[in-house]
Amino acid sequence: MGKILKRIGSAALGMALLMTAASFVCSASPAAAKAARSAKAPQVNLDDYVGPEVCSGCHSDQAQQLQKTPMAVLLTEKYPVEQRGCEACHGPGKAHVDALSEGNPDFATLIYSFARHTPQENAIRCLTCHQEKRLLGGKEKDEKQSLFHRSRHLGAGVTCIDCHDPHLLPQKETAKPGLPLQTAFNVRRISAERDWLNNRLLRQTEPTLCYSCHQERQADFQLPVRHRVNEGLVKCTDCHNPHGTLMQKELKGTFTEHVCYSCHVEKRGPFVYEHAPVRVEGCLACHTPHGSINRNLLIRRQDRQLCLECHVSPQAVNVPHPRGGFQTAGECTRCHIEIHGSNYQPQFLR
After folding, report:
1. pLDDT per residue over 50-95, tens digit each?
2. Which residues contact 29 (CB under 8 A, 6 or more apart)?
3. Longest CA span, the chain
4. Rounded Cα distance, 299 and 313, in Å
5. How far is CA 190 from CA 171, 185, 194, 205, in A?
6. Distance (Å) of CA 290 to CA 48, 158, 179, 209, 219
7. What is the pLDDT of residues 128-157, one digit of tens each?
8. The pLDDT of residue 323
9. Is the pTM value of this prediction over 0.85?
10. C-alpha–C-alpha distance, residues 52 and 59, integer Å
11. Distance from C-alpha of 160 to C-alpha of 120, rounded to nearest angstrom
């Protein structure tokens, strides 16, 4: 018995010492973490930076465009020189300027160029500022860009500058034949520069920019029954986050809770009598989201055909009709109208 008590006492003493050490480490961890971050931070040589005034001497058009954007805040003196102006993105420019003045033909390689680097390297450079959350006007704004490292776009070699341009130069308007998107739909027309400034510095407006890669979706939105994307009432980014999410298809959330119900609130419920496929499988069990030749974006031409994919056997519990009780014509929704859920009828009747 004494040996057992002795072992228990030793174990308790060891546990106490372990907890004391853990509390010491936890209390010291903020200071240790700060020291570690400062130790890992690269040493900045301020003599390598020339300032945005020197850059604008040659790149005056780009500097003028940058001043029109929200990124113009980088030109203010509230930021240190290594985080100010052009060099905040392109890195120190002294070697580049000196080589240019000396006539060195390799001057272009002595500064960071997004065209010469991989999408991963460019994304890392952009994400140093564009974190998931940032302060804007004293309020925290959720940018939802922290998952770009696992997005499908980055995996396909698409990086930030393929869609965005912080200093887009205005293009000369040239006469072009009418495109189907502009001729078939009443799309608002404003200047390209104003559209660029109003839409997160995109190179082109939605959905034209998205269609440049996702051409199969452009065909979907030409179908008779569709979401009004081409008309400008709905945007691709209303449902998808191109910077990456934890959901399939880069969705902003689940279909039922965050995407479809954000507009179709009357289908959300909760209902006293739930329709199981709506709650379990979601909207895609019956609907296709982009466009269809069927009414209500249904995946089948006839409602009855869609219903019978689940309600298979006339003798089963889930089909209360007798074998000869089905109508040879008509739809199930003639009687079962509350198919998304009902507060009155378990069979979703009138």
Report:
1. 988 999 999 999 999 999 998 888 888 888 888 888 999 999 999 9
2. none
3. 99
4. 21
5. 14, 15, 7, 11
6. 51, 23, 21, 17, 9
7. 888 755 444 444 455 578 888 889 999 999
8. 57
9. no
10. 10
11. 10
From CA 287, how far away is CA 220, in angstroms rounded?
13
Residue type, 132: E
Q: Encoding tokens for residue 66?
A: 């940058």
Summarize the chain as % helix, strand, coil (round to 5).
45, 5, 50
CA distances from 123 to 120, 200, 313, 342 (A): 5, 16, 54, 48
Specify the DSSP element, H or E, that contains 136.
Answer: strand 133-136
Q: Which amino acid is at 86?
A: C
Contacts of 306 (CB under 8 A, 6+ apart): 286, 298, 299, 300
SS3 156: coil
Residue boundaries of the structural domains of the chain: 48-112, 143-166+185-253, 265-350
Q: Which pLDDT band holds residue 315 (cuts at 50, 70, 90)?
A: low
For β-strands 225-226 and 291-292, DSSP reports them as: antiparallel
CA distance 187 to 200: 19
The token duo for 175 is: 């006469």
What CA–CA distances, in Å, run from 181 to 46, 172, 215, 237?
A: 51, 21, 12, 18
